[in-house]
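Record type: monomer structure entry
Structure origin: computed from sequence
Chain ID: A
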Amino acid sequence: MKKIIALALGLTLGAVACAQEPYPFISTPVAEFNEPWALEFLPDGRLLVTEKSGSIQLVTQDGKKTEVAGAPEVAYAGQGGLGDIKLHPDFATNKVVYISYVEAGDNDTSGAVVAKGTLDLAKPAVEGLEVIWRALPKVTGGIHFSHRILFDAEGHMFVSAGERNNNAENPDMAPGQKLDNNLGKILRLDDNGKPAAGNPFAAQGGIAAEVWSMGHRNPLGLAFDPTGQLWNIEMAPRGGDELNQVMAGANFGYPYLSNGNHYNGKIIPDHDTDTSGKYNAPKAWWNPVISPSSLMFYTGDKFTAWQGNAFISGLSSMSIIRVTVNAQTGAAAEAQRFVMGKRMRGLKQGPDGNIWAIEDGMGGRLLKLSPRP
């Protein structure tokens, strides 16, 4: 019954959003890319945009593009390729940049990695790029790499690792529920890719020492709210995309629990059936799915009514979804859906307080969303 109610709610929200046009922002196209995946602002206001096939573009806010040399060789297939890009918190002085991508392994396997290098903007080029973290084990198949990167105020690096759809329909073998691997997890590392001090499973040593939370499926968005609380957005199976408030040591239940079901029709118990107290339920979820691809919290002064709201880019929903979040209780709910007409891959608040977005796929555009006069 709950999934039927959610279906009706999703259709209603979509209808309400469409009825609210024109939206309170103007969408201005700035540049086009081939399968853009992530965007990051430099201190001078220019942007770095990754393209999944393996290139990094340096982009001015008026759309002039320059390819950055030194991008890594990537395993470009399925959902794999070049992924996220993030500046070190002290980038202004050390020029260090982090790049996630998919590398090939033996016997047709692959896996996500994070590499660290120095960005010389005068050339422009990434130099001295070195892999500092790997998703293990490498497995076959080309989906659910996740590999989003996020730094906290203390300089810890969080990395999301998807479960790679590896034995998802056999819970006894599901990697996200085991600590002998780092798939289906969110990891907390230092800026050299090693387990950060104080992680919840540090006493077990080895790969378990990297883990911050577990039981994830395909976590494609990581963001801190204005209070510093970590959140993630992830693709569930058939139904049940999740927005999660991520606590140290939390287990979000996949594949034991989900508000969706397996693609082969096999039922997964909903989160509200759990009586064990071992698993964390999402703060908001969607059925029909929105196919989330990134997450941000708005803190700027261009859209003052949206301060503290979460924003999610959606692929199959071709939308940007605004979510209200109560920082004290963690309650979250969809407030508005902006139907963009294109698969949306990423969002970023700009230094100017505008919201910047990238579309998915060939010819995907960089858009600046600024307040409507």
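Annotation 1: The mean pLDDT is 93.
Annotation 2: The chain is about 5% helix and 40% strand.
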